[in-house]
Amino acid sequence: MIPLSTRMRPDKLEDFVGQEHFLYKGSLLYNAIKNKTFDSAIFFGPSGTGKTTLARIIAAEMDSRFTEINASAAGTKELKELIDNARLRFFGLEKKTTYVYIDEFHRWNKLQQDSLLKALEEGVIRFIGSTTENPYFAVNNAVLSRVRNIYEFKRLSRKDVLTLLQRALSDREKGFGNLHVSYEESALELLAELSGGDGRVALDTLGFIVDNLDLTQKLTAEKVGEAMQRKIGFYNRGDDRYNLLSALQKSIRGSDPDAAIHYFARLVDGGADIQTIGRRLLVIASEDIGMAYPSAISIVHACVQAALMVGYPEAVINLSQAVILLASSPKSNSAMVAYERAAEDIRTRQTGDVPDHLKDSHYKGAESLGFGQGYKYPHDYGGYVAQQYLPDNLYHSGVRYYTPGRNGSEASFRKFLESLEEKYGKNN
User: Fold this and answer.
1) Which pLDDT band, with edges at 50, 70 and 90, does 168 fall under?
2) Which domain holds residue 127?
3) What pTM does this model have?
């Protein structure tokens, strides 16, 4: 049986869902496809975000031969045959370019990737490569230099996933429209939430549920939880998860490790995923602990990464360590407050230009403009020398954004900055 996610692939650009940051009506990519001027590209991002679907739509819109291979299964021999056939087509009677879509392109080694270069330069093929890895690390520079555009696919929003699910339930040709499946809105919302922005997971889970559902019954949140093998706890209680996340942060901010671990345990029991908890802990590490214990962000990041690697149930051990560490650490929000003060000035007052002695002087002509002249290199003066850094009007008004706290490590930073102020004056 063909998976629902495969059946529901859209055939038209107008039906493509997601990636609005680079694909929308009137965008350069949209126009390039419609005007048939699309060249080559690399798509990168998580699975289930539409990379293959968009490649197939592009090939259809370009009215050209489309060949799709997977780098994990195909090697240099298969690619050579493909290019030879494309060359015959390009230089023969058809005189048309072949579009080649290579999934998991990062799996090919340098030699395999470089075998595309000549065909790309000749225009024999147009290449669309997709990868879940960062192409700037996973793809050879020689290939990158010959590919016009690199598009980052982001996880689908909850709204995008809901659109896909509703389309599948109403589509009479490809989906379940003829079955008239009765469902609770909360069930689709839960499925969209639990799919983690992966359209394939959402659709195939829906397909599994409907294929095995007694159609005299409704598709409920409980059925979604059963299909996903996930506890749905607070997902059935609306905003409870946000209340629990709020309570977790406020308990950590209040240095109460017992309350913090309590709310953490309730989040886990309710079905919160590692990413949801981990993101909040990383924010807390900078927002509430910050300069009082600067290493907290590194330790918490390591705990979250470890949790993602081992997965539940063991992940709770890593996350518990992060929760207790944060709750038991000295607190400071001075970094966040400093940014907010600076951002407010930028929004509401004339801040002035960068002082000339701080401007970039590493190019021809900078000296004639006076850029970089008079700059004092602090290391030549033992690590510090008094000079102006702020724009003139902010400097002369004595603006101050960062106010060091007195807790933890920040007390030593405060002492250092105060010693400079005592020796050199407020504005140095």
Assistant:
1) very high
2) 19-152
3) 0.66
